[in-house]
Amino acid sequence: MSQSFASSTRRPLTAIIVGAGHRAMLYASYAQQHPDELRIVGVADLNPLRRAMVAELYGLSPQQCFESAEDVASRPQFADVVINGTMDHQHVPTALPLLAAGYDMLLEKPFATFEAEMWDLVRAARQYQRKVIICHVLRYTPFYAAIRQQVADGVIGDVFSVQTIEHVSYHHMAVGYIRGKWSKPSISHTSMLMAKCCHDLDLIAWMKSGVRPRSVASFGSNFQFRPEKAPANAGTRCLVDCPIEADCLYSARKHYIDHPDRWRFYVWDSLEHIANPTIEQKIHSLKTDNPYGRCVWKCGMEVVDHQSLVIEFADGTTATHNMIGGTSRPSRAIHLIGTRGEIQGVFEDGRFVIRHIDPRPGHEYTEEAVDLTVGGDMHGAFGGHGGGDMRLVADFLRVIRGEPPSISTTPLEDSVTGHLIGFRADRAMAERRVVDLTVEA
Length: 441
Description:
This protein is of the alpha/beta class and about 450 residues long. It contains 16 helices and 15 strands. It has a 9-stranded mixed β-sheet with strand order 14-13-12-11-7-10-9-8-15. A 6-stranded parallel β-sheet has the order 3-2-1-4-5-6, sandwiched between helices.
């Protein structure tokens, strides 16, 4: 950090929000919970309503509000860090001038949308000697942090198989990847795999930390959400011309009117100029220009609804990941198999089991359950993502203060591995071949 901002570790660190979207605002809320550790002193966002919202929430003056990251970078440095929650394709373009201006950064994932700009960010962080922590929030959850600690402690020996699964619920799939911002790479500049599963790919790389991946293969498609798969007589807009809306599992009324708060930050962003929009105003929005009112089979989505990949590591071990969109229940599962045992669990259940071979007469294996819902806090005071969001911010602040971080925080270069797997898995899927991971493109 610059000299003028490193004189004391006792005062709160100061932060500028760049991109006042859902994720950045959630991370910034740490300042409300822990004002002795973090203070928000600026915001940059193109949307004047969001700038005004942040200014009111954190008592900012007009001089502390900016339209862009470039505006912030053009001023003398006035904070310790930046919380960068811009859209995926804006991460690197906004990060580069801020790193050059002296700011350390908490950067939302995926931190790049294609491989070349990923290396640009890594080189800039090295050049300017800046600390960049990527928001791999699942690393910071009690569930995954506890599993990683078991691996680090050698409880199951050398891990030679990592299996992960992500089931994306039908309503999350619809709001994010069919009707929403990530439905077309031409707009979001990122794939379904990178937008949704870079968490999981990072977890795979983290569980095999220190071992480089060697190659990857991948297959996937949009099997379900195509016009020819639409139910008979389905319309184009749920509340306008669809005679089967009342019976449709993907009805916009059922998803966004019957559940008005579930995805409100995305669905009602076109109404954010209205303090408390009425149900009638929301219905009118869905009937007219709101993209979330469209038929899921006729949105022209350009991403997959399922994808599988297999990774080979330099030590000969393997990993697999399966992403399935449109499931009844959202869930993430992990199964690690090592030379001395295995670990298996479902994230949403908040528990995992550790098994060891037991060759004694009358036995086959021993099993120890680790239940993080008993006497712990899977969600509660530690926020979303199974308790990972606020733990991530707390660890980021420790890194900036020069204190030892938890097992969950590793250098920026370590985050490259999971992203590299994702970028090249998408290439492998498109080209229908095994892609090398050992050379820089």
